[in-house]
Amino acid sequence: MKAKVTAHDVARLAEVSQSAVSRAFTPGASVAPDTRERIHTAARQLGYRPNAIARSLITRRSRIIGLVMSYLENQFYPVVIEQLCQALQQDGYHVLLFISDTEDADNVLMDILQYQVDGIVMASTTLSSALANDCIDAGIPVVMFNRVAQRRTMGGYATSAVTSQNRAGGRLVGELLVSNGHRRIAWLAGAENASTSHEREAGLCDALAAADLQLHARGVGHYDFAEARRAVLALFRDPANRPDALFCANDHMAIAALETLRTELGLHVPRDVSVVGFDNVPQAAWPSFDLTTVQQNVGQMVDATRTLLFEQIGGQVLARGVTVPCVLVERGTVGARSVEYQTHKTSETT
Amino acid sequence: MKAKVTAHDVARLAEVSQSAVSRAFTPGASVAPDTRERIHTAARQLGYRPNAIARSLITRRSRIIGLVMSYLENQFYPVVIEQLCQALQQDGYHVLLFISDTEDADNVLMDILQYQVDGIVMASTTLSSALANDCIDAGIPVVMFNRVAQRRTMGGYATSAVTSQNRAGGRLVGELLVSNGHRRIAWLAGAENASTSHEREAGLCDALAAADLQLHARGVGHYDFAEARRAVLALFRDPANRPDALFCANDHMAIAALETLRTELGLHVPRDVSVVGFDNVPQAAWPSFDLTTVQQNVGQMVDATRTLLFEQIGGQVLARGVTVPCVLVERGTVGARSVEYQTHKTSETT
DNA sequence: CTGAAAGCGCTTACAG
DNA sequence: CTGAAAGCGCTTACAG
Q: What residues does the HTH lacI-type domain cover (chains A, B) (predicted)?
């Protein structure tokens, strides 16, 4: 292991000042073409690479973005990490990844702030917005990803957020289900404090209201596989009063529902019950699930995140929310209910 | 957004020198208990947090580990990220995440080195080991995760690696298949240049050889869902010469195989063909797959990675490989083949 | 136990 | 276009 080579070493070899070396590695700095050439040659010879830490100290820009997540079991998040990371790399930024359970969020915050990140992306539906507010106080741009922070009027600041048009997405599902003749539609919520879950449910209820219907039943799965299973079991406990459709707040829970309905309850999807998810994770397309769902456009969400981040890093104080359209992906888990069948089923339990 | 508060500001308020402030935040430094107290109070009042960037510059330790991955579709890797990240956080380290296609690996390397990471973990089966060697030249500890680097005798350095006992794992599967009466066992390789795939195949062949058998057929899926599907289609093209068992180099491909066998080939698993994977990703336990597989112990692999990393950061030059035991997880995708059935099938094609 | 001072490796006005 | 110099915010011998 060789000793670290610094700009001084290169300067000596290239017979220029250390400042010149710095300029030769700063895009747009004024250096004569041939000195730049000489410096680069010397640098290559010595294996010199500018020290990004030292640069950060003087420029007060680390070009590091903190990405906070709480769990990766839901495949939606690995997809987000991958795309966000690659996009930011292309922008010349890098990602410091923090995995945080909701409890140790405060320690995580401390760490992030010490590392002088230029911005923070919070891509987890279960993270406290108190955390976000602390960051704003520290003057670091924060954008919530797939989550809306609680409004905070004090001080005039708010947190930027990028989300899908969750309510519209929920409505699309509601309309699909209604138009296919479903009348006993159940909702499986994510976390009760998650804006995504709320919005999607509200959209579903919009569509039901437009058809003079209301929610047939409601469970809570906390965006968790095992909890979703339990909730589904409860929702379908009474055979005489079974939902004819189940809309789950995300695909992860929808897949849990599918598994539970088939394996433990012996029900056929979509014949006995239709199932719809939200996200369009890779597994939703697997033949075993063939899940009808609402696709969140991760690419657009990532673009919006970058825009928001750079806007604020560039000094624009205003936080704002960006909302990205999502589209219904119809696959095989929604069936048609005939009117006869509907009437029959309804009279059976009335 | 308030101006950044520095150690000087705290010093002024607490009426001590800036050095004292630094000591108050350095565990083990000699400060009088009451001055430390006064300093901490002042710091809290001002919202001071030590600047980790400045500290890194002087200590020449960034406490950042670079984690390089190429794709996250295979659920094994999100699990690794999550556990590695959390473990390193507890060790007081943080993770700079790099997503790299195999092509832009060089740029990625540049970036990592500029950020003065204390070490690098390469947790991707498809990453070039030339990259790793460059890092070693730069004096940065590298540990390969779930992959073995090409040996490099020159200079006496080699790359540390933590892997599962892949060959033993492959052998376990071979023995299971043989003892259940399978005689026409096919192998679906990952990437041809991946040590994991090689080792697992070698283990399988060990078991086959012990029973005087050899591979019935062989495909290559490049650890990719779509490619695995194509390979399976080719492997099962001839109904008269079909494998009675398929061992896939990882679960991701095994699930692709399961889907293809059932949906496109109309075969029943395990009645018509047994399927085994490797990794034990979360989905392997889902009822739809109920996949028999070999579990890689991520916890132990992560622990070994930390040990290796800290060993080398601490100045021990020696690179070494650590190998972690893996265990067979028997689920529902392996059936029994009776001798009659075997004989019948074999004679049918001979 | 404490402070003054040097220095980590850069960037960036400021002169020339 | 180029160099000398100051300074980013810390840590850490070195004296006292």
A: 5-59
CATH, residue B107: 3.40.50.2300
Task: Determine the Cα–Cα distance for residues B126 and B193; give it in Å rounded to an integer.
Answer: 8
Q: Is the CB of A52 under 7 A from strand C?
A: no
- Both B127 and B185 in one domain: the answer is no
How many CB atoms sit inside 10 A of residue A106's CB?
Answer: 13
Question: Domain tally for chain B?
Answer: 3
Q: Do B177 and B111 have their domain in common?
A: no
Burial label for A345, CB within 10 Å (0-12, 13-18, 19+), is middle
Same domain for B178 and B268, yes or no, is yes
Distance between first and last Cα of chain A: 80
Given a cut of 50, is residue B142 above it in pLDDT? yes
Note whether B45 and B120 are same-domain residues.
Answer: no
A27 and A68 belong to one structural domain: no
- DSSP H helices, chain A, are 7-14, 18-24, 33-46, 52-59, 76-90, 105-114, 129-137, 166-179, 195-210, 225-235, 251-259, 298-313, 339-349
Q: Read off the pLDDT of residues A140-177 as tens digits, 9 standing for 90 and up.
A: 888 999 988 665 544 445 688 999 999 999 999 999 99
Element (H, E) at A185: strand A185-189
pLDDT at B156: 47
Determine contact: B59 vs chain A, CB below 8 A.
no
Residue B131 confidence class, pLDDT cut points 50, 70, 90: low
Q: Are A120 and A147 in contact (CB under 8 A)?
A: no
Examine residue A1 and state whether it is found in any structural domain, yes or no.
no
Q: In strand D, which positions have an atom below 7 A from any protein CB? A: 1-5, 7-13
Task: Say how far A235 CA is from C6 C1', in Å.
Answer: 71
How do residues A302-331 score in pLDDT, each as one tens digit?
999 999 999 888 876 677 889 999 999 999
Q: Strands across the sheet with B185-189, in order?
A: B217-220, B185-189, B245-248, B274-276
Contact A98 B81 (CB under 8 A): no
pLDDT tens sequence across A174-221 = 999 999 999 999 999 998 888 999 999 999 999 999 999 999 999 999
Q: Is the CB of A23 under 7 A from strand C?
A: yes
Which residue type is seen at B182? H
